[in-house]
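Whether sequence alone determines local backbone shape is best considered at the level of individual chains. The sequence in question and its structure tokens are set out directly beneath this paragraph.

***
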Amino acid sequence: MTRIIGLTGGIGSGKSTVATYIASKGIPVYIADEEAKKLMNSKRVSTKIQAIFLENILDENGNLDRKKIAAIVFNSPEKLSELNTIVHPEVKNHFAKWLKKHKNAPFVIKEVAILFETGGNTACDKVILITAPQEIRIERAMKRDNVDRESILKRIQNQLPEEEKIQKSDFVVYNIELQNTFKEVDQILKILSKP
């Protein structure tokens, strides 16, 4: 049975960089956010999503406008919950199909930004947390997303506190210096490769 290893981390932690590094080793990596975006753009799912919003959430090409949706759900826990009840089951089903394709791998990595917040960690055999001091994470995210400090702080407040994530994780990688991070990840992958 293929083991599912959760990979998570708050905004600006560098979890996507680590996911790319792990994938470069030939290990199957499922990026939940990317798959969710693709699924949300399918006609079947986008129609369901459009139905829960009173305002127009489509861009000029008729696709979902992710920035408009984000602006609404960040200020409305009810709308966020409604959106999640549509998207999460879709991602769950998609992941189950993807997992069947990789059933011969000793383990796969499932990268999810809000793994603990959604209870997804309960479906994982082990969890790797990528973290960094908050100031470093804020700077990285501001640079990457070209947004202000306030926006990043709002997103951080919507995520579980780092201390709680650390307590719930099997492996914790402090991603401050990338070369050291990759060395730590290699050590974890060695441990996970043992039957």
Summary: The mean pLDDT is 93. The first strand starts at residue 3 and ends at 8. Residues 67 and 142 are 16 Å apart (CA to CA).
